[in-house]
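Following up on my earlier thread - several people asked me to post the actual chain instead of describing it. Fair enough. Here it is, all 313 residues.
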Amino acid sequence: MRNRVSIKAIQAFEAAARLKSFALAAEELVVTPSAVSHQIKVLEEQLGLRLFHRVHRSVVLTEAGRQYAVEITAAFVRIETATRNIATAGGSTVLTVHSTPSFATQWLMRRLAGFNERHPGIDIRLHATLEPVDLGQSVVDVDIRYNPGAPPPGVVLIPFPDDTVVPMCSPELAKGLKPIRRPRDLGQHTMIHSEVTILGWRDWARRNGNVRLDLERGPRFDRSFMAIRAAVDRLGVCLDSLLLAEQELQSGKLIVPFSSMGMNVTGHGFYCLKAKADLPKIRSFREWLFEELAESGAWQESFMADVVRKAES
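Reply from S.P.:
Thanks for posting it. Predicted structure:
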């Protein structure tokens, strides 16, 4: 078979195989039955195979025809799906964002409705894994990473505003049989460990007068959102970021039990290709994201000032 098979012949075959009739296929394709028969004959000659048994006025697929029909039908389904998807997309633009799981779960997801209201023409596709992505493969537009390092060649990094890391626990735990009112009270409680955070309990203890803590025990998690959830469930005291625990703190499910020396850290960073940084969809998302982060930062300052006022009263 030196030449490509005819698309018209393929269409005629698919319709006839699906409808089990040259006449019905002709009606669907708005041609004559003889035209369908001719196209299928051309296809059989090109393939060197018989595709149909002609039995009086009906047609039956041969075994080769049946196998060929399975593949051709699947190809037509894919074409129809692709056509439907592109038609549905219409004038919308898809922005693919990759994020760490905790930032996506704890902060970003519940704000996406606000982004959609401001930019209804941009559809967000969100992927959440710990592994950084290769922006050069053009699959992901924006990568939000934890503990940002120097960007690779051709990539722009915009660090997030500094975040504050403090001890947090449920209000029931703080007011229980072993109240938590000052840093040394943590020595009587279970520490919840976030194993992938930049700063941990040893750093916090050292910065707060070498508070004695039992750091050999306690549950350990490789995602901040799990450590925060464990604190809500009264498994112990977690040490995590105000940014990621914002919802739990605002709802009262978690509290900062005392005023202490918080640790400031640049936890996350925004990465995109330099060549794509000024694309409207990326610029719109970046501007919205950092406006939201500024609001979170203002809330953190107000929240911690309130913690200090309560401790002093």
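Residues 93-162+267-300 form a domain with the D-Maltodextrin-Binding Protein; domain 2 fold (CATH 3.40.190.10). That should answer part of your original question.
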